[in-house]
Each structure stands twice: as structure tokens, then as C-alpha cells.
Amino acid sequence: MKPHFNPYSLARKNQSFYEISFLDKRYAMSSQIEDRPEPIMNKIAFDGIIRAVQPRIRLIRSFDQSSHAYLGFVLRIRGTLAAQLNEFTVGIGTGAQAKHQFRAGDAISGECLPVADPEKEPVEYYKTSKLKLTSRPETTPTAPPPWHRIPPDLPAYRARGHRRLDARTYDVHCLTCIWACRMSVEMIIDHWNPGKKRYRTETFCYGPKSCPLYRPGPTRKVPGRRGMSWTEEDWVDEQATAHRERDE
Ligand code: SF4
After folding, report:
1. Whose CA is nearest to atom 3 of ligand 1?
2. For 104-160, what is each residue's pLDDT tens digit?
3. Ligand 1 atom at minimal distance to the Cα of residue 207
4. Pocket lined around ligand 1, Cβ cut-off 6 Å
5. How would you classify residue 247: left for phi > 0, otherwise alpha for psi between -120 and 50, otherwise beta?
6. Which atom of ligand 1 is nearest to the CA of 144?
């Protein structure tokens, strides 16, 4: 029998760290509905300079409930992909980041595949292999913000908690900061019918609350059943980061 692509089981296999909640269970049920044959593709060679290393996270929302799937790290690379000059994002696992300790400025090479389901991934390419750190600049990264050092591991991000970050501020000021994260967001519209979903991206900041570049942007609305919607007010961010001092 032909093998089936199940993003949930793939994520379980590839992730050393995954947050479990009732939302994840719903996600597993609905993912079975979406099983599809896995395409067979040749990997694409890339090389270039890392502009940013950021956490690779999927946010699963169900009205006022949310949980996170910690997928690994995003490398934003300016370089050559399939023999074309480009800027692109590649997903790597926690093991690869722990081994290579990538940071902005590193020159790297490897192979990857286009993501099978762009709505569920915050990167354009993943299943990265043959990763090599080819050189690292001797110069120290510029003074923050934004922060360009080697990022912490994913449990450290989860422990810090995040605040919403204005999408334009992310693009203009935070695109290369280790504390910024553009998450793919999966919204379960009706918890009685978990196959009914919508997708979007949202940007967040895990950085110090004193960062002068930070702008929250408008509050975010989560759609629900029968045209209802829930607004994520400021207290959610305040609660998520209340354990941190302003400069932490
Ligand atoms: S606002 Fe957050 S993500 Fe942006 S530079 Fe400051 S700490 Fe980094």
C-alpha cells in the first residue's frame, strides 16, 4: 500500500520538543482527514549567508484557546538556491541547530525540499540535509537591537513567553532578530468540526520588554462558530511575559 503523508506524525518524529494539549489531540484527528500521498521530489542544493536564525513555530488556535508546535528553527538565507540568486527561508530541526550553532553572518550550504503544505509551515523549504557551516566571520555581531547572537534552545523560548509584534515592525526592524518569530497559524473555526480550519501568519516578539523597536500593532481577532470572533487583548501578552523583568 502506498505510504501516506501525515504532517502530525511527521512532526512527532522530527520534533524533540512538542507541546501537548487538548488542541493537539483535535489537530491529530483533523489531520487524519487531510492525509495525502507524499510527493517524490529531488532535493535542491543551496548555499549562502545566514541573515537570521529564528524559532520555527506553528500556533494552533481554537477561539480563545491556543497551543504551540515547536518545529525547530528558521534560517533566512541570502544566496543561491537551485542555481538562482535569491533570499529564502529554510527549516531545520533542533538537532541540526544544536550541532552547528548557526547565527547571522555564517556561510552555509545544504539541500532541501519545497514545503508540501505552505499554510502549515513558516518556511519555504524544509527536510534539510547535507548542512555545512562553511565559514563564520570573525567580527562580532553589531550591538542590539536587533539581536544577532546564537539563539537559545526552544524550551528557553517557551519559558520566556511572547508578545504580539506588529507585522510591519517585524518586516522593517525585526526580520533578523533572534527574538522575532513569524508563526504559521492554524485556526480551528468550530471545535465540534475540527476539520473546519483557516490559516494565516502572525508575528511575535520573545525579546526584552524594554526593546525600543517594539510595537505591538493592532489586537488580533480569532474567528469562531457562526460568525463569532474573539479578540486577544493586551492582558494575554502581559500575563505571558509577567515573570520577566523589562531588560530580560
Ligand atoms: S522588538 Fe523584539 S524582535 Fe524586534 S528587535 Fe526588539 S527584541 Fe528583537
Report:
1. 180
2. 999 999 999 999 999 999 999 999 999 999 999 987 667 899 999 999 999 999 999
3. 7
4. 145-147, 173-174, 177, 179-180, 205, 207-208, 211, 213-214
5. alpha
6. 5
